[in-house]
Amino acid sequence: MTFSVASLLQLAKDILFPYIKENVKEYLQTHWEEEECQEDVGLLRRQAEEDSHLEGAVPIPAVSDNGAADLQQVIQAVVDNVCWQMSLDRKTTALKQLQGHIWRAAFTAGRMKAEFFEDVVPAVRKWREAGMKVYIYSSGSVEAQKLLFGHSTEGDILELFDGHFDTKIGHKVESESYRKIADSIGCSTNNILFLTDVTLEASAAEEADVHVAVVVRPGNAGLTDDEKTYYSLITSFSELDLPASP
User: Fold this and answer.
1) Is 177 assigned to a binding site?
2) Binding positions for substrate (predicted)?
């Protein structure tokens, strides 16, 4: 069984992502000289070059020798680029990597805890007890995923999951990504159930012969009448009646 993180987390759009916009500048100013931060900025700069043909794209110049004022301009360009990507709900590896590092700083400092929908943890525990394997597939980096599950209001629940996947294996709207995950965990695609709140992801998974249920959560994008008719819909993990593993 594989989950999209958005189907598990409560208030992800209301807390996690606004935190990035509110704190990215402070984070960059604090960590700028660190190698990891420079790697993140380098990835974002290369992504910005690839995006240069897109309307509204924000370039990220290199730092020159003009001192602190120039550095602040570059940092502001990174902030503007991050906010531009987030406004388009982009899932680039460069963006997700920086987001993960900002969240790591927040979680380890105790400024944040992940909050899950109340049906999630009991259901996952039940499935694990029945012998099922549970994996996470998210646009957020594996590192960010582990932060969320390691610093939650339920405590450290990393032990409930058998593995994690992110966009390094492929984007969630590409069917080949699901085939690669199946190969990685040694399972045929038709023995996998994927839970997501995004129908484009559901469609890609189905193309790979993966079983799908669309999770309807508060604040999600609305579904069309055709989507409501076509997909299996659940509002809680407790609605899934799954057979125990042999």
Assistant:
1) no
2) 138-139, 172
For 45, the token pair is 């700069």
Token look-up 């009448």 returns: 225
Q: What is the pLDDT of residues 187-232, one digit of tens each?
A: 999 999 999 999 999 999 999 999 999 999 887 888 999 999 999 9
Q: In this predicted model, what pLDDT tens digit does every residue of 154-163 receive, in sequence order?
A: 999 999 999 9
Nearest to 38 by CA among 65, 69, 68, 71: 71
β-pair partners for 211: 193
Contact call for residues 60 and 48 (beta carbons, < 8 A): yes
Neighbours of 240 (CB within 10 A): 17
**How far apart, in whole angstroms, are the C-alpha atoms of residue 113 and residue 243?**
32
Q: Which residue has the tokens 């294996």?
A: 169
For 221, the 3-state DSSP assignment is coil
Binding residue per annotation — 139?
Answer: yes
Helices (H), the chain: 17-31, 35-50, 68-87, 93-108, 120-129, 142-150, 175-185, 199-207, 225-230
Nearest by Cα to 31 from 117, 125, 106: 106
Contact 144, 170 (CB under 8 A): no
Give the three-class secondary structure for 51: coil
